[in-house]
Design a protein that fits this description.
Blueprint (H helix, E strand, L loop, with lengths): L9 H21 L26 H10 L7 E5 L5 H10 L2 E6 L2 H13 L6 E5 L12 E4 L3 H12 L6 E5 L6 E2 L2 E6 L4 E8 L3 E2 L1
Parallel strand pairs: 1-2, 1-4, 2-3, 4-5
Antiparallel strand pairs: 5-8, 6-9, 7-8
Helix pairs in contact: 2-3
The structure holds S-adenosylmethionine.
Length: 203
């Protein structure tokens, strides 16, 4: 059976991600008041900066391979979606992994995924805005966001410990020269996976 994500043509995914960014920016410019605290502690304080599109399984494997994940690493997935990357990292390498998402639905799915895979002792799921997050303990960071969001994260990424590996599915980070770019077969095209190691070379 085809993976549901891979049934989306890649151009569709890129257009969907980009149009989501535009509409979110528009919505936020129309409503800049902070959200009132709701009845639920998990209510999002801000809309996601990008919609949920999961990384397909072969790309998850490639991201972990490119990052050379090893025992003792601490991996952060910034915008963890359904938690597939943190679960895979914990199961494959027995490492501590932290998934962070702003959307309470994604947090719920991630927690279910962690439980279903019995990696509660290794994986933590947090509901937070990645732009407000302290992830300085990371030795590996994974991202599937947007080029502009990667660039917004650069000050925090550049401040990580020397040797920290940063891997991005599909999107580059303008101004930072990748150490390696692997290609993985997607449905419609080859999809790049980028690797940087802190401190990266400027582009
Ligand atoms: C394209 S999905 C990637 C999901 C997962 N990392 C993967 O590769 O399968 C991006 C995720 O980022 C989350 N997100 C968007 N803006 C965010 C923010 N400011 N803080 C935390 N999460 C955010 C979305 O809710 C979504 O789940």
């Amino acid at each position: 059976m085809k993976h549901p994500v891979r049934s989306h043509p890649r151009w569709f995914t890129a257009v969907a991600l980009a149009s989501c960014l535009a509409s979110t920016a528009f919505a936020q410019s129309q409503d800049s008041k902070p959200a009132k605290p709701g009845p639920e502690a998990t209510a999002p304080s801000k809309k996601p900066d990008v919609i949920f599109v999961p990384t397909f399984p072969e790309a998850v494997e490639k991201m972990l391979e490119l990052a050379k994940v090893k025992p003792g690493d601490v991996l952060y997935d910034l915008g963890c979606g359904d938690g597939r990357i943190v679960v895979a990292a914990a199961k494959r390498f027995g490492i501590r992994a932290i998934g962070v998402d702003i959307d309470p639905e994604r947090v719920k799915e991630s927690l279910e995924n962690v439980k279903a895979n019995k990696v509660e002792h290794l994986v933590t799921i947090k509901q937070a805005d990645i732009f407000e997050l302290d992830f300085s303990e990371a030795s590996v960071v994974t991202m599937y966001l947007l080029p502009s969001l990667n660039v917004r994260l650069m000050p925090k990424l550049a401040a990580l410990k020397p040797g920290t590996r940063i891997v991005s599915h599909d999107f580059d980070m303008r101004g930072a020269k990748p150490l390696q770019v692997a290609q993985i077969e997607g449905d419609e095209r080859e999809v790049p996976i980028y690797l940087w190691i802190v401190p990266w070379e400027p582009e």
